[in-house]
Amino acid sequence: MRFGFFGGTFNPVHLGHLTLANEAIESLQLDHLWWLPANPWQKDAADLMPVDDRLEMLKRAIADQTKMSIDTRELDRHTSSYSIDTVKELAQLYPKDDRFYLIGSDQWENFHTWKNWRDIFDYVTIVVFSRNGQHNVPATEVSRFLSQHAIEVKMLTMPALDIESSQIRKMLAQQPCNYSLLKNKLPSNVLNYLQAKELRKD
């Protein structure tokens, strides 16, 4: 079997994330793709939407996707969550399957800062997707390591999409929020959830 694992904060999940997930399933011929929502150590917790909200929106976003599921192992950890720990666990769960770990081009550029980054290649095939149609270049030490060990990293080119979670959060923070401007950025059931949540506050 060919399995994909898509990590991120999904803060919130948007149509760009869904486009990427579907593109990965098609391009990599995946039998299934797991979303791995996280509370990464690199990001300020104050900038993260509540875990329950992010998880609920993700559930709604993929409700009709038969080849997608959510894996909450990173949220369930009570200590700092690192990708190396996750990929080791995935290798134990799916030892005979092809495992593809999806990361963004901006994450790839900073891959050398990840804990035990060299070991990650022992457990998964890294797939880097572009942001706005362009791939960032990894640090020299990463490029050298890949060359020395003949490691293949797959590049997934995505269409340019003018959707960013940070932009969405700014729009949501505006009072009153113009939800009509978010129709082309968020899945409809995610948008409905956010609107209902705002109404409950009033």
UniProtKB/TrEMBL annotation:
It comes from the Bacteria. The gene is nadD. The lineage of its organism: Bacteria, Pseudomonadati, Pseudomonadota, Betaproteobacteria, Burkholderiales. This is Probable nicotinate-nucleotide adenylyltransferase. Pathway: Cofactor biosynthesis; NAD(+) biosynthesis; deamido-NAD(+) from nicotinate D-ribonucleotide: step 1/1. Pfam families: CTP_transf_like. CDD domains: NMNAT. Its EC number is 2.7.7.18. Residues 5-170 form the Cytidyltransferase-like domain. GO terms for biological process: NAD+ biosynthetic process. It comes from Candidatus Aphodousia faecigallinarum. Belongs to the NadD family.
